[in-house]
Design brief:
Layout (H helix, E strand, L loop, with lengths): L3 H11 L16 H12 L2 E2 L12 E2 L2 E3 L22 H7 L3 H6 L5 E7 L5 H11 L12 E5 L12 H17 L4 E7 L4 H13 L4 E4 L1 E4 L17 E5 L8 E2 L7 E10 L6 E5 L6 E7 L11 E4 L2 E4 L6 E5 L11 E6 L1 H15 L9 H6 L4 E2 L32 E2 L8
Parallel strand pairs: 4-6, 4-7, 5-6, 7-9, 9-11, 11-15
Antiparallel strand pairs: 1-3, 2-8, 3-17, 8-10, 11-12, 13-14, 16-17, 18-19
Helix pairs in contact: 3-6, 5-6, 6-8
Amino acid sequence: MLRPTRLLACLAISGLVTGIVVAPPGTAWSATASQADARAALSKYRRPCSATAHKGRAECLALVRTTKSTATAFAPAVDPPPTDGYGPADLQRAYNLTASSASAGSGATVAIVDAYDDPNAESDLAVYRARYGLSACTTANGCFRKINQRGGTVNYPDADSGWSSEISLDVDMVSAICPRCHILLVEADSNDDDDLGAGVDEAVAEGAKFVSNSYGANEGNFSNLNNHYYNHTGVVITASTGDSGYGVSYPAVEPNVTAVAGTTLFPAANSRGWAEIAWVGTGSGCSSWVDKPSWQKDFVCPRRTVGDVSAIADPDPGVAVYDTYKTEEQGFGSGWNPFGGTSASSPIIASVYALAGTPAADTFPVSYLYRHPGGFTDITAGTNNPAGTCVPDYLCHAEAGYDGPTGWGVPNGVSSFRN
């Protein structure tokens, strides 16, 4: 078997994976160089939202690819795609969900918590679902609801073209994985931690058992960790681990949240039909402050280790998203675009949980992944720290079994997402 660095080099040379920086033999490792290389690898993508989160505020973690895909093996199941990003059939096949997506999830509500308002959320969702032959999900038929952080359906927050892209990505990914699920969009007044947290509480109060949060910032930006907003038994709460490479993000670091990391996904000539490596941009690491949960058993990191599980995040080729609430200065067009970031991973995993069924009332569903690690496709190659090292090595390099950049791996069906 090729060592991860050798496999990465082969994939990068072949053009199957982009944005991967592989140090030549003998290169001295440097954390500073690693962060610079990670930033360079991500520079070809655009962030719809502000790239800097101020203290106590989160940024949305969506990325948009504005150049032609260089993943030359891209072979979508949907022909022809509206953009060179994966659609629902691709994602369902990649994660062994085709049968579950067709039959499970009816009656389950997946909540999406984001900041600010997307005035076009429902109409954009309609275009996405119609394009891929999914049933309509509207306010009128009870499938889609949009509320503010207090549960109201009037007086939505100020509209924001950056966060609207995040919202479109999130609701499209729920549709792709769990087309029979209901979608509850909760729009927080701002990206302030307390507003977003209030949105999570409201989603739970509204009865959602699956809540996705595609936002975050370095855990050092927040003084109130172990936050009650993300501490609901019997509710799946997922959060993105970040898009800036090695480092720990809040709220993914919260002890009872499922921290969702990111991969690069591409077709392959194997029995699965796909291959994956850890995405260079995904967050991971050992928390500086949050205590290790009882169910997490990696003994070298004395505190909470991030992440727990992973799914596609690399915007090349990324996932197809339909979004029309735009401004010219964002630098990408209205309509179909290829998206990525761990913003895609979080709603994907929340939706896989929804396919698996309602969680037990007295449990934290992140613990299921650690009790049933056999139901994943293990990701054993790739790094989010390409020109650096970390101690221990598994915190920034994918390897057999559990590791920080991919957790236990990616879904292989739904068995590991049940109590």
